[in-house]
Amino acid sequence: MQNSSNQTVKNKGIYLLPNLFTTAGLFSGFYAVISSMNGHFESAAIAIFIAMICDGLDGRVARLTNTQSDFGAEYDSMADMVSFGMAPAILVYNWALQDLGKIGWLASFIYCACAALRLARFNTQVGVADKRFFQGLASPAAAALIAGSIWSGSKYEIDPTNISYIVAFVTALTGLLMVSNFRYHSFKEVDWRGRVNFIVMLLLVGVFVVVSVEPAIILCLGFYIYALSGPFITIKTIKKLKVEHIVGDEPVDPNETEPQQDMAEPHGEDKTQAMPTKDNPQ
């Protein structure tokens, strides 16, 4: 009887290491909000990138140490909403959109709401989605695009009032890309524990050197290219572009032909999904 009680208490514990990285990411996102309110936009943008690094580490650490848990998955989603939903939306509003009135805060809200929808959709598709691709732009990448733009603008002293309408458009469009059906490479098929050629390590060193020269500009351009890669990959791989390839409840297999889709999914057919198994989300 005593052993059963001890086992119950043990199961109620929380794994420290992966949740420590999640907490660090949450702290970075919260710090970005505070910094943007105080006018320290460059520091706020860098904090979002730090949150992105922490978010990339917590799930991998959990899998490597076999410390996945439902609590960790839920906590990670909550932290992501702060770091990659609220923080970028408030940061971009304080930097360039507050003088636009309703247009400014509506553009920020579109981004924030789309980030929440993106995370909710991702959580419901864990275990059934193709792990090689993300359905829609991942929220950390979207946040990095916004943060990279503001970091570059602050570093080179660009007056945000001169580009406020452009910033509003980019902010809203980035949010819509998150809830789109465009396919983005997830890079989850990379074996991080496997052996690589020596040349690969030299290339990685070169990447770090290039990024360190002008991190704001290079990271910003890199995530803009990644954001544009989704529509490019989708349009390139499908045979005929349809509305459901861009937006909808479920992603459509781009390898299916038009007749096969009509036969497999007749109009009005009730489609069901297997219940997903939770894992650490992005």
UniProtKB/TrEMBL annotation:
Organism: Shewanella saliphila
Region annotation (Disordered) ranges: 249-282
Record keywords, A-Z: Lipid biosynthesis, Lipid metabolism, Membrane, Phospholipid biosynthesis, Phospholipid metabolism, Transferase, Transmembrane, Transmembrane helix
Family statement: Belongs to the CDP-alcohol phosphatidyltransferase class-I family.
Cellular localization per UniProt: Endomembrane system
Protein name according to UniProt: CDP-diacylglycerol--serine O-phosphatidyltransferase
Membrane-protein topology: Multi-pass membrane protein
Catalytic activity: a CDP-1,2-diacyl-sn-glycerol + L-serine = a 1,2-diacyl-sn-glycero-3-phospho-L-serine + CMP + H(+)
Primary residence: membrane
